[in-house]
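=== RUN LOG ===
request id: a7f3
mode: sequence -> structure
chains: 1
length: 427
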Amino acid sequence: MEIVIVLLYLLLLLYLIGKLRFFAVPKMPRKLFMAAFLLKAAGGLLFIVINQRYFYNGGDSQVYFTAGKVIFDTLFQNPLHFLELTFGPNARKPPENLAAIIENIPAWNDVRTYMVIRVNALAHLISFHYYSIHAILGAFMGFTGLTALYKTFVARFGHKRVVLFCLFYVTPSLVYWTSGLHKEGISLLCMGMLVYRFSLLYGTGLTLHNISAAFIWALLLALFRPYTFGLLLPALFLWYIAEKRRLKPFPVFSAAYLTGFAALALIGKLLPRFNVFAVIADIRYYFVMYKTGGSEINLQLMQPTWQAALLEMPQAFINTLLRPEPWGNIAVAQQLAAIETLVFTFFAALCLLLAKPSLVQQQNRAFLCCCLFFSVTSFLLIGLTTDNLGAIVRYRSILLPFWLGFWAVLANFTPFTTFIRNANKAG
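=== RESULT ===
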């Protein structure tokens, strides 16, 4: 029965991809997007199989699924309990009437994790309680977020639509890590739709629909991934300012980020309660002291100062972008991640050699700076706080469209395409 329902859901979602205007991209056949979604769904199913087989208790996704079922079961016992557990506030003292139920729900005091449990509870309404359906729904969410980002890029760089399609929909990390009903897929949906809606402010203007939609997606991203939201928001704001006022974006972004770092350092000194660097040090402490496994980086505890963060930024950037390495005695999963990392490095290096910024129209450079500064600051935060290579590979996955998209747009691939075309003619 489960297989039948899975197939029916796949057919339904493929139908929506084929019919909804959102999934229409000029000069790109719908069938390509359908095939990309099937690949994404396969990634989601593979994700739950691997997690159930190799991770304790099936990994985080299994925990979210099970906790969501606990909330769903209250619907038939007391619908008001279901509504309060699904839509009411958490991270508070459990109400007496819900205390017995909350004992069986993990992460009550963690707003971000509990948000994912809420989504799983709602998914149980239509999933027939099949874990595989949750994986497919999560894959569709991640796919929708990717499509939103893809449309944003193609609207500005239509001549790169093929290479961008390959990067967004075929990159293994994006296929695997952003599928399934967990933080990465949901965060990618919120992030992609926020950027897409924000980009429409330049086209259709400051309409109530665009503003309200952007606000809702921003709020959801802040709930699911507050650190990502905090890093994306200034990049979007600077993109808007630079493009609207026709300023040179790179100096604007550079000056703004340097000023912002100085302001954070000053605030941390004058108001220790709002010391961002202390928060970073606390997150690192959690990873170093409580996370175990065979893929750790040897990070030392960090002092809660801007000087300590600044000194460690180069190594943090290297840890996020260039690791894991494809040598040493590492597991198969790490070897695959290492090969992918090596490909990313060569791709960025190739694009840097072929870079021709003059081909990028002035009005589109602010968007590229938004992608660059957001991805770099996010990589730095991951590297400063995380000592587990598996977690790094997972966290950076939702940033790959911005990072790889930036390099793909910057490069001039005309010499390669000309060479291939001439070779085909000669053959």
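=== NOTES ===
The CA atoms of residues 371 and 402 lie 5 Å apart.
Residues 1-224 form one domain.
=== END ===
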